[in-house]
């Protein structure tokens, strides 16, 4: 075991994957000698050479188009989009090519070996072009997997699983957690299952569901609720697509209540899909309406970031409302 922050865990996962499989290559804007804007790819070019870790032109559509071609011809590309806010020029490539290539070719071609890494979310005073959470846009696309880690241990295990999965994966890294904390991470190779939620702590009064950086916020809110005698079951969804309905439903059938939180705006956020599905499966078990504590329906503000963020106090108040409904 070694002490690593999330950036170091991502870097270690990439080194592990590149050592294990010579077909793995890493590329994107400034990822080469510079190591990327957050330094997640530091020293990869020095270790593996410019043929396996290299800079691309500043064109997101080109990065993913190039990655699609590599993946379809047997390489294992790990493409970095510098910020998730910049992924939209590549939206057509991801939605209409990456996700559909296997289906439209009848299985003759596939982009299944492609992993797209991108930092997402707020909390770094990045303003509206460096703070967005676009996971719900891609959750509507069959043929993709979407994965979000909450800490360094999860980041390494989930990233290695994503790189080795036979489906294209959008791996979204909560940028405000990159250097926020350090955790124990095995130096050896390991993977964590995709599409499987994790029950982080068990409880009996309400289920709290989140992913990525919101997990830390949820746990703080749960600690506040404990002082009021409210027992919270906290679940990390980990994979947005496919998402683990069974684990969430089993928890809600036990607690009778569900609160979901994400940074993205409320309207059309992935919490809506979760709420609709769990209401359908657990209607007769519910003791209160399913609650959502999310970002505001507004461009991400620079000056009012604190007001925009769904923090532990907003979640705590929502927990109390649910339990006292």
- Please give the CATH architecture of the largest domain: 3-Layer(aba) Sandwich
Strand adjacency order, main sheet: 3-2-4-5-7-6-12
CATH fold-type name of the largest domain:
Rossmann fold
Alpha-carbon distance between the termini? Answer: 45 Å
Number of strands: 14
Which quaternary structure do these chains form? single chain
Topology:
Layout: E1 2-4, H1 6-20, E2 24-28, H2 44-48, E3 53-55, H3 60-72, E4 76-80, H4 91-98, H5 101-104, E5 115-120, H6 135-139, E6 145-147, H7 152-164, E7 169-174, E8 183-185, E9 198-201, E10 206-210, H8 214-226, E11 232-236, E12 239-241, H9 245-255, E13 258-265, H10 270-282, E14 291-295, H11 305-308, H12 312-323
Parallel strand pairs: 2-3, 2-4, 4-5, 5-7, 6-7, 10-11, 10-13, 13-14
Antiparallel strand pairs: 1-8, 6-12, 9-11
Helix pairs in contact: 1-7, 3-4, 8-12, 9-10
For this entry, give a set of tags.
single chain, 325 residues, alpha/beta, Rossmann fold, 2 domains, seven-stranded mixed beta sheet, five-stranded mixed beta sheet, globular
